[in-house]
Amino acid sequence: MASLVYIxxxxxxxxxxxxxxxxxxxxxxxxxxxxxxxxxxxTAAWGNTSQNAFLNQVVAIETFLNPQELLSKILSIETEMGxxxxxxxxxxxxxxxxxxFGTIHLNEPNLIIPHPYIQHxxxxxxxxxxxxxxxxxxxxxxxxxxxxxxxxxxxMVEKLDVN
Length: 163
Description:
Elements: E1 3-11, H1 16-30, E2 33-37, E3 41-43, E4 54-63, H2 67-80, E5 95-101, E6 106-108, E7 111-113, H3 122-131, H4 144-150, E8 157-159
Antiparallel strand pairs: 1-4, 1-5, 2-4, 3-4, 3-8, 6-7
């Protein structure tokens, strides 16, 4: 049976817009059918703020993979695109995070679903609200709109016009 998965892509190195487009294409090719993509948003860096702003986008996919299989594919895409992991919150060519996997709640050493920071990050919530405003967080039992109205993140999130 297929699962509906929401994924956040982000980039702040190289041609970030092209990186997001390539990531979405590779996700479609190896992970599952892309059903919807949010607009692209420019966001000040979170965590390590002394770096370039990020471009972010939420992608909704339908997949027949299980969470660990999907994680493996995502990590492969990141590596193929040049992602190197040295430090937490460092600049990156591409970052691909699984936000929600259906209504699954998973807490494993290498994968936590739903993503533990969703409710704290406007750069995640704003594109989620754009494409799935009534999506209910399976742990917090609140919609994305509700979580956004309560989010205390003050970083700038700007919708880009990239038609």
